[in-house]
Amino acid sequence: MSFFSTKNMVLICYFINGDKMKKTMLLAVIFVALGAICGNYLYQAAPDSISVFQEKNTYYFLQEGVYSSKDIMQENVGDLTNKLTVFEDNKYYVYVGITQSQENAKKIKKIYEDMGYQIYLMDKTINNEEFSNNVTQFDLLVSESDSSEDILTIEEVVLANYEEIFGTGM
After folding, report:
1. Neighbour count for residue 70 (Cβ, 10 Å)
2. What is the 3-state secondary structure (H, E, C) of 100-129?
3. How far apart are CA 97 and CA 110, in angstroms?
4. Are residues 47 and 74 part of one domain?
5. Residue 145 lies in a domain
């Protein structure tokens, strides 16, 4: 039997060209494995990078003051009907408004300053879709209103909504 027999030539061609289906399947298995490895890596890295895709909302909290005791706080803001009191870091924070619009914040601040209060704007970031949607709607109402009474009523609802969603307040 010679080296160049038909049987040997078929075997040589088979090893040179190979079975195309087997090559295709081998490549498919390699690509699926690479995809699984890359996907697993990205999945493991996702918790660190997911915040990049979340919408971060900045709010202007109109702060009347920070008090070390409840009694002092009640003496200074007892006549304020529209307020949110938050106890954090052993202090009482009193807010009279929350908005996403700097123009609305200035409008609300002026109302309280005309009433004799000193108001500070505090920037805070909150990621809560329900609260964001509510504040957006209330901001539209505040921006369209020129009545101090209407604006204060709207802010009372915003503060109550914050308290309801986040469970803070006193």
Report:
1. 12
2. CCHHHHHHHHHHHHHCCCCCEEEEEEECCH
3. 12
4. no
5. yes
Domain that holds residue 95: 57-166
Amino acid letter, 110:
K
Using CA atoms of 98, 103, 109, 111 in order, give the dihedral in degrees to the nearest 10.
Answer: -110
Reference 126, options 61, 56, 63, 60; nearest CA is: 56
Q: Do 113 and 135 belong to one domain?
A: yes
What's residue 46's pLDDT? 67
Are 63 and 21 in a shared domain?
no
Q: Which two structure tokens, joined as six digits, stand for 34?
A: 């690479």
- Lowest-confidence pick of 20-24, 55-59, 69-73: 20-24
What is the tens place of the pLDDT at every residue in 8-23? 766 666 666 666 666 6
pTM: 0.64
- Average pLDDT of span 97-109: 93
